[in-house]
Structure formats: structure tokens, C-alpha cells
Amino acid sequence: MGCFPDWLRKSIPEASTLRTEEIVRSFRLETVCHSAKCPNRPECFAKSTATFLLLGNVCTRRCSFCAVSQGNPSGEDRTEPERVARASLELGLKHVVLTSVTRDDLQDGGAGIFARTVVEIKKAIPGATVEVLTPDFKGDEESILEVASAGPDVYNHNLETVSRLYPEVRPGASYERSLDLLRIVKSRFAGMLTKSGLMAGLGEREDEVLETFKDLRAAGCDVVTVGQYLKPAEGKFPVREYVRPETFRRYESVGLEMGFKSVFAGAFVRSSYHAKDVLECAQAAS
């Protein structure tokens, strides 16, 4: 599509991002903020906030919307959980968000690294809350429950888009498998907040988004985020619509009526954007 509409223009923060950049680099860590080319990175880094990308920066899946490198990753670094915990402490984080590339090459899909990182953070920062945004682990219940058993405060898994668009947008993934992951977590850990996110502007209809909301509620999902998809590079899935602010407001209103504890929708909304505020809003509604 052509030029961005006015509501998709974002000012650059005056505060420096250098301290966050240096801490992340000094602990040899990756962030999804960089790897996914998130438009909120300057804002979040200026506030000493980052979302850690576990298990390297090469993904085994080939989703058409994603800027993360795709290919054959190498091994896993067993020191990563401790390094993430130490970086979180130095950044002064009270709410830590962890995500990862998809690692279909690993037997547990990387679940062990997720679980150990949650434990290390809670050990290093007493009172901190931890949010995990995991891949689907190919639907393996043992891997899903290994992460949930580590005690994250929020278990997030993104549907990303409506069912009809999965073959184009998420080849290798399954809409039902992703819903099943959320069902599994909620069935075994009823008090754990579950969360999911959608991108808007991929060609979905509004009624399809609301049907997806219903599917998420049926799976026990507590929190949903919806943000504008922005094409990250040439050759990636095209932006088919710049969704207007009033549509995002409608998603928030209808989602709350459906029973979500928190709905965060807007052009620049991403899964981990203002994650601590979203968590507190959901806790207040519990």
C-alpha cells in the first residue's frame, strides 16, 4: 500500500536508548525488538524495557509476516537463562517478557530454556512477574506444561491471524493447535493468565476477528491484543489495509463485552507492548 496514514506516524522519544542497548549487548542477548523490527523499540528501550528473544535469532518456521531470520539454527546455549536474569536485574525490570524463535529442531522445542529462564528471573528478582510468549511446540503437551509449571504469571501464545488466512500467513502452524495450547494451559493452571495476539490489516474481515475472539474465549483466553500489521521487508506478506482507530476501539469494546479481562487494541499495539500495564489491568478485573 502507499504512504502511512496519519495515525501510523510515531514520534521518536527524546530519551536515549543507549543504556538498554549496551546492557543487552553486554550479556550477549537477543531481543525481539530488534529481530522483528518492532516500531516501538525506541520508546521501550528509552524506558529500559526490552523483550528477550530466547534460543537465538534464527527460526525454523517460514511465516510470511515475520522479519526474524529463517533457516537452520545451531544448538542452544545453556547459560542463556542466567544471562537473561542478570540483564533483567540490571535493567531494573519488574515485569519480564520472554519470547523465542520457533525451534522445531529441538526435541522439546526449547521448553526447557523457557522454564529455566522463568526460574532464574524469579530467583534473581524477588517479586518480579514474568510473561512468556511461546511458539506452539508442535502441540506437544509435555513441552507446553514444562513451561507453565515453571510459574510464569502470564502464558501468551499468539494466534496472529484469523483461521482463513493461516495457509498464507502461518504455513507450518495450525489455528486449532494454537487454540489447544491455550486450552491445555488453562485446564491445568486455572489461575494463570492466558493471553493471545492478532495482527490486523492482513485482509481479515471484522466479523472474522470477532469470531476469533469467541474461539479464544472458548479456549479460556483472558487477554487479547490487536495491532496493525506492518510489512517488515520486501518479499513479506503485503499490508492489505491500514485499520482505522475506530475499528480498534470497537475491538476493545466488543472484546470486553465478551468477557476478556483486558483487551489492548491499537495501531502500534504488539504482544509485549505495555505488557506490565496490561497485566495489571487484567489482575484488577479478576
What number of domains?
1
Looking at the overall shape, the CATH architecture is Alpha-Beta Barrel
Helix-strand pattern: HEHHEEEHEHEHEHHEHEHEH
- Sheet with most strands: 8 strands, mixed
Tell me the total number of β-strands. 10
- The largest beta-sheet arranges its strands as 1-2-5-6-7-8-9-10
- The CATH class name reads Alpha Beta
Report the principal-axis shape: globular
User: What share of residues is helical?
Assistant: 25-40%
The CATH homologous superfamily is termed: Aldolase class I
CATH topology description: TIM Barrel
In short:
38% of the residues lie in helices and 15% in strands. It has 286 residues and is an alpha/beta fold. It has one domain: TIM Barrel, CATH 3.20.20.
Give an overview of the whole structure:
The protein has one domain (13-285): TIM Barrel, CATH 3.20.20. The mean pLDDT is 93. Helix 6 (141-149) links the parallel strand 6 (129-133) and strand 7. The chain is an alpha/beta fold and 286 residues long. The protein has an eight-stranded mixed sheet, sandwiched between helices. It has helices spanning 18-26, 32-35, 41-46, 80-91, 111-124, 141-149, 166-169, 175-188, 206-218, 245-258, 275-285; strands spanning 30-31, 51-54, 58-59, 69-70, 95-100, 129-133, 154-156, 193-200, 223-228, 262-266. Helices cover 38% and strands 15% of the residues.
